[in-house]
Amino acid sequence: MYLDGRLRARAREAYRATSHLEGDKNWSDFVERAILAEVLRRETVHNDGQTYAGDTTPLSPGRPLG
After folding, report:
1. Which candidate, 7, 12, 55, 6, places its Cα nearest to that of 30?
2. How far apart are the C-alpha atoms of 49 and 46, rounded to whole Å?
3. What pLDDT, on the 0 to 100 scale, is given for residue 59?
4. So where are the chain's domains?
5. Torsion of CA 51, 12, 8, 39, to 10 degrees
6. What is the 8-class DSSP label of residue 27?
7. 18-54, pLDDT tens digit by residue?
8. Using N-to-C axis directions, what is the helix angle for 27-46 and 5-22, rounded to 10°?
9. How far apart are CA 66 and CA 31, in angstroms?
């Protein structure tokens, strides 16, 4: 997984500053909760609040070249 360096630094600082207030167990917990929030938002907006079916097909790696 690729993250822009500025975004990663911003997220790490937000985690460091608030993890004790938000109850994050660790960095992975923070990232998982952030991803879940976006998944829930997209399911609500684009799928009538329904869970998308799971799929194990590999995603394309990284950013496209060009």
Report:
1. 12
2. 8
3. 85
4. 5-46
5. 10
6. H
7. 999 999 999 999 999 999 999 999 999 999 999 999 8
8. 100
9. 29
Instruction: Give the C-alpha separation, 45 to 16, whole Å.
Output: 30
Nearest CA-CA partner of 43 in 31, 34, 33, 52: 52
Residue 7 has a CB neighbour count (10 Å cut-off) of 9
* DSSP codes joined into one string, 35-60: HHHHHHHHHHHHSTTPPPPP--PPPP
Closest by CA position to 12, among listed 26, 43, 63, 56: 26
Write down the pTM of the prediction: 0.81
Q: Are 9 and 15 in contact, with CB atoms under 8 Å apart? A: no
More confident residue, 61 or 26: 26
Q: Record the tokens describing residue 51, joined without a space.
A: 């869970």
